[in-house]
Amino acid sequence: MRNIFLIVLLAFFLIGIGSPVIAHPPGQIVAEFDLESNILSVKVTHNVGGDPIHYIESLKVIYNAKEIISQQISKQLGDLQTFLYFIPEAKKGDEIEIEAVCNIFGEKSVKFTIEDSE
Prior knowledge:
The chain is α+β, with helices and mostly antiparallel strands. Helix content is 15%, strand content 43%.
């Protein structure tokens, strides 16, 4: 009986059912806004080690408490992904929040206020 339990448990991990146990939310979000070009640069770190089943599935940009961008992502090519967004109406003092969501488990967000470019 014990051997059957161990075989079933091993099978769950081999076919990916055990993935939520080792899945994790995005590790870090680094966002910068360039006032000259009105480009938002977002870098999301999510260490998946090439696992094609575990990836960042969506990214949202919330500008002054209003969601303006929602991107669905179907594949993660590396542990660091970079996204660029043009936000023509953005100005100094505006608030931007970025939310990144893992397809298996967890999410991470970061919020900042646009400052002068130095």
